[in-house]
Write a structure and sequence with these properties.
The longest helix is centred in the middle third of the chain and has 48 residues. The protein is an all-alpha fold and 75 residues long. The termini are far apart.
Length: 75
Amino acid sequence: MPAVAWVTIAIAALIIAVTAVALLRVIIHLRTVRATLGSVLGGVTVVAQRTSTVPDRLTSVNDHLKPVRDFCEQV
């Protein structure tokens, strides 16, 4: 095999090795991001639960305040 063929194979192997290392780094970074997003999602879920709307059992407050609202509208 001529020397040019060996050089071409060596360069191709070098390119493939560098690409493989880059892809492994991407995989490692994506796993780290996945773990971080899991933590963020947990925090967002807690915030959503703590800032949810008033429960249905408190709707009777509006019914009890209707006379006050009616009086205020008359004034």
